[in-house]
Amino acid sequence: MITVRALFALVLTLSMIAGAPALAHDPVPRVAGHAIDDVQEEAVEAARVVDAFHTALEHGDTEGTLALLAEDVLIFESGDAERSRDEYAEHHLAADAAFSAAVPGIRSRRVARADGDSAWVASESRTTGAFNGRPVDSLTVETMVLRREADGWRITHIHWSSHAAR
After folding, report:
1. CA 159/CA 154 separation, integer angstroms
2. 78, 84 in Cβ contact below 8 A?
3. Which pLDDT score, from 0 to 100, does residue 159 have?
4. Contact 88, 75 (CB under 8 A)
5. Which of 34, 51, 86, 147 is most exposed by smallest CB count within 10 Å?
6. What distances in angstroms separate CA 107 from CA 35, 67, 158, one per listed residue?
7. The pTM is what?
């Protein structure tokens, strides 16, 4: 059964697309210069944790980045998997921090939902710039699953996927 809130969000989204036909084809859709966000009220804090994760990563704050991950985090990226916070710290954290610091990403869309002690945040972004002397222009999708723990939300799963912008 569709809720009044979901119906309103659907009507609002469809009216935005109908009012701006180029929006559906723009690889980084924006409304008045802002990302298109659909964050359920119950998921606001979880979305803030995702933002804090990215901020820490961009500033090279690896301790702050790791503090937002559950010990049993599962990270999928480019066909690889890291199965714990420690494994991520040992393998890709430093490279991810260096890349995030060098190449800014601009979020274009976000959807976030929460139910009880579980939440998910799905984002789309475009990353442009240069890294290690190579140009970067890619579209990225990201899904983060979070669990509410005694001291706040922790990221339990990350799935990153990207491809060159066309």
Report:
1. 15
2. no
3. 98
4. yes
5. 34
6. 6, 23, 16
7. 0.81
Between CA 126 and CA 54 the distance in angstroms is 14
Pairing verdict, β 36-39 and 134-149: unpaired
| Rounded Cα gap, residues 165 and 26, in angstroms | 11
Which tens digits make up the pLDDT trace of 14-56? 333 333 333 333 444 556 567 899 999 999 999 999 999 999 9
Residues in the chain: 166
Q: Which amino acid is at 143?
A: T
